[in-house]
Design brief:
Elements: E1 4-9, E2 15-21, E3 39-42, H1 53-61, E4 66-69, H2 87-97, E5 106-110, H3 112-124, E6 130-134, H4 142-153, H5 162-172, H6 183-186, E7 189-191, E8 197-199, H7 204-208, H8 216-231, E9 237-242, H9 250-259, E10 264-268, H10 275-278, H11 280-295
Parallel strand pairs: 3-4, 3-5, 5-6, 6-9, 9-10
Antiparallel strand pairs: 1-2, 2-4, 7-8
């Protein structure tokens, strides 16, 4: 299935790039989406919309149109002119995007995307039809988060070849079989004028997320706000944790479920933090079942 490229100009000053997956022959690049209930996929920090390709396509083939978008400063979306990539800005972008989609979508959010979905839904209520949180809870394990940040910072000068990129990724994901082709990685890479390959995100993201960016008091306030947002969730919620995750612990999952007791919980065996990439078929099964039950198809 070839997705339809979409772009969304937001009131926040950001333009988001997206891919729309649908079987409908009537939907084109400029077709208004207010008649098309969507499943909206929001990737994690440092990823792009291409992280969801398999799952989004599968939902569309089952009759549920799906939209994947790049966050600000990621992929083909615009970069923040003021370099503001603090967490609340991503929620601001989501709040600005939702009215452009017509009916409230089911949101599938990994990590950063899930935090944004919780923040918007907790603040507004019924902004979405339901939420799938992919290996993200209000409380995140510091060591796991720092490991991801170290990966993102490791090669500021980029890579000489795609093969070098593949080797680096394989060292970060030793539990995952290495792909035979680098075609998937190429969607997450840009080639500079110097011929070097670099990740497809604004380097200013790393400054905003750097160590010491939040004091202990600010971090505690941030966590308290996320827990409060979880308590205010009233739409159907599914938490999908990667059982091998070092970012979301079982204790943090249970803390979230205590705040949001109506949420469903799946602890996916064989998956780490990047659940969709680690166990794409099993992840797709879980999300498709949730969407089918919400849409009664």
């Amino acid at each position: 299935m070839d997705p339809i490229s979409r772009r969304f100009s937001l009131s926040t000053g950001i333009t988001l790039a997206g891919d729309l997956y649908t079987l409908s022959p009537d939907v084109q690049a400029d077709t208004p989406l207010d008649e098309t209930p969507l499943v909206l996929f929001l990737h994690g920090g440092g990823q792009t919309r291409h992280a969801w390709g398999g799952a989004a396509e599968r939902l569309a083939e089952a009759g549920f149109p799906a939209l994947t978008v790049d966050h600000r400063g990621h992929g083909d979306s615009s970069w923040a002119a003021d370099g503001d990539y603090l967490f609340p800005r991503f929620a601001d972008d989501l709040a600005a995007l939702l009215p452009l989609l017509g009916a409230p979508p089911i949101v599938v959010g990994a990590s950063l995307g899930g935090l944004s979905a919780m923040a918007v839904e907790g603040d507004r209520g019924r902004a979405t039809e339901g939420i799938v949180l992919v290996d993200v809870t209000p409380r995140l394990e510091r060591d796991g988060v720092m490991r991801i940040m170290e990966f993102m910072r490791a090669r500021p000068d980029g890579f000489a070849s795609m093969e070098e990129v593949a080797e680096f990724v394989a060292s970060f994901l030793p539990h995952r079989p290495r792909p035979k082709s680098t075609s998937g990685l190429e969607k997450n890479i840009r080639r500079g004028d110097d011929g070097r390959y670099r990740w497809h995100w604004d380097p200013a993201v790393l400054t905003a997320w750097g160590p010491g960016r939040y004091s202990e008091a600010e971090a505690a306030e941030l966590l308290a706000g996320r827990l409060d947002a979880a308590r205010r969730l009233s739409v159907p919620v599914l938490l999908v944790r990667g059982r091998m995750s070092d970012v979301v612990s079982e204790e943090s999952a249970q803390e979230f479920l205590a705040c949001c007791p109506h949420a469903e919980y799946v602890d996916l065996e064989g998956a780490a933090h990047m659940v969709a990439g680690d166990k794409n078929d099993a992840f797709g099964d879980v999300v498709l079942d949730f969407v089918r039950r919400l849409r009664h198809k």
